[in-house]
Specification:
With about 130 residues, the chain is α/β, with parallel strands linked by helices. It is about 25% helix and about 20% strand. A five-stranded mixed β-sheet has the order 1-3-2-4-5. Strand 4 (about 85-90), helix 3 and strand 5 (about 110-115) form a beta-alpha-beta unit. Helix 2 crosses helix 3. The radius of gyration is 14 Å and the shape is globular.
Length: about 130
Amino acid sequence: MPFTTDKIFYETHGHGTPVVLLHGLGRSSRAWFGFETQVARDYCAITIDNRGIGRSKDAPISLMTGMDAFANDVIAVLDALQIEYAHILGISFGGMVALQAAMAHKNRVTSIAVLASSIAGTRALRL
């Protein structure tokens, strides 16, 4: 089982241009149900268990853990794999992480696809 130095679990599937797959809150990378295999036909699919979830359950998390920590975990996985930049696809909470990663690490994120999500960090009414 590959882990980064911060105990973040990840797996790679396939070869080619890297695409990071980030699941929603409370879901592990096991919940892709074969989607990662489909992506791996043409790309290197990288699945990650967010800190505190699935096989990353030993990574520190608290109510004060912000989006920066989750975004930095994605970059730590890319560093562990010696990948300079990647596409990121995020669903729900994973979409929030993808947005934060793209904002905080512009030179490491080629593109993002965000599904069923919003930007985190504001208490204002949002659509």
